[in-house]
Specification:
Elements (H helix, E strand, L loop, with lengths): L7 H13 L6 E3 L6 H14 L5 E3 L8 H5 L4 E4 L8 H8 L3 E5 L4 H5 L4 E2 L2 H13 L4 H15 L2 H16 L2
Parallel strand pairs: 1-2, 3-4, 4-5
Length: 171
């Protein structure tokens, strides 16, 4: 869902900064708006900032279709204020995208400091870091995918869940 918790207005500010630095990127946002006023606000800001050729709202994409949707993208960007887990981030990384994650509470512990940014300057620095690794991009993607698969492997998660349940049984 596109709502205030996902902080899409930050995407507009990031896109505006990249445009001013002549860094040619597009931002593709999926989901449905929960509040028509928020859709009006974001559309109006896109027009005011001159981002109509940079920021695109693409509607709802079903989870099973995400890997196909990710196929022609280079990065997974999360500007959320808070995520309980961050499924789309992990799915993006597992699909071969490099993570750019606003450092919401706990993000650095879940995704590592290398993938997080605090503000607009950090975002540009992180993006340039990835650009400078262009010749090593496949290696970076492979490392990110491996970390995501190891950390969020279903068997590992089931073991953790079993441990929690066993602890509850002893209470």
């Amino acid at each position: 869902w596109i709502n205030y918790k996902k902080n899409p207005q930050m995407i507009l500010y990031l896109a505006d900064i990249l445009n001013k630095k002549s860094m040619d990127y597009t931002f593709h946002i999926i989901g449905k708006f929960q509040d028509p006023r928020y859709e009006l606000y974001l559309s109006d800001m896109i027009n005011k900032l001159g981002l109509s050729k940079t920021v695109f709202f693409e509607g709802w994409v079903d989870n099973k279709d995400l890997p196909k949707w990710f196929a022609d993208k280079g990065y997974i960007l999360s500007t959320s204020l808070f995520e309980s887990f961050g499924n789309s981030i992990v799915e993006g990384v597992a699909s071969g995208l490099l993570p750019l994650i606003h450092n919401f509470y706990g993000a650095d512990k879940r995704f590592g400091e290398v993938a997080t940014f605090n503000g607009t300057d950090d975002f540009v620095t992180l993006l340039k870091h990835y650009e400078n690794l262009e010749d090593k991009r496949k290696q970076q993607i492979s490392i990110a995918k491996r970390k995501a698969m190891e950390r969020y492997n279903i068997n590992r998660q089931l073991k953790k869940l079993n441990h929690i349940i066993e602890g509850l049984e002893q209470i």
